[in-house]
Amino acid sequence: MTTLLIALCGGAGAVSRFALDAEVRHRVRGSFPVGTFVINVLGSFLLGVLTGAATHHAGWLSPTAKAGLGTGFCGGFTTFSTASVETTRLWLTTGKTEGGRYAVATVAISLLAAFLGLALGTALS
């Protein structure tokens, strides 16, 4: 049952990522991959909230639900591989500085978002 829920939630996360990325690309033009950046930051925040709430409220979610939402949805929503490809593309097309900035910003702001989400999830529980 857990594997099925992870697969279903992962699919929902991937579809959500696709839709959000398309919307961001429609609204924001340029070489900087804003869609993937926003998705990874938002996904990190969501996983932080989920982790904070689930950690401090042991009975709040079943282990199966935690796996479905955390591993499935958040894992399907965020995308390290696309961020890596986009970093490389920026590196090759606009130079090392732009590619490096994107890589550092993605990691740093995603970590900050995860910490903020963890704090919020903890405070809510």
From TrEMBL:
Gene responsible for this protein: fluC
Keywords carried by this UniProt record: Cell membrane, Ion channel, Ion transport, Membrane, Metal-binding, Sodium, Transmembrane, Transmembrane helix, Transport
Function of the molecule: Fluoride-specific ion channel. Important for reducing fluoride concentration in the cell, thus reducing its toxicity.
Catalyzed chemical reaction(s): fluoride(in) = fluoride(out)
Residue numbers binding Na(+): 75, 78
InterPro entries per record: FluC
Presence of the UniProt keyword Endoplasmic reticulum in the record: no
Protein species of origin: Flexivirga alba
Record's bilayer topology term: Multi-pass membrane protein
Membrane spanning residue stretches: 37-55, 103-124
Pfam families: CRCB
Family note: Belongs to the fluoride channel Fluc/FEX (TC 1.A.43) family.
Name of the protein described by the UniProt record: Fluoride-specific ion channel FluC
Regulation of protein activity: Na(+) is not transported, but it plays an essential structural role and its presence is essential for fluoride channel function.
Places the protein is found: Cell membrane
PANTHER family named among the record's database cross-references: FLUORIDE EXPORT PROTEIN 1-RELATED (PTHR28259), FLUORIDE-SPECIFIC ION CHANNEL FLUC 2 (PTHR28259:SF16)
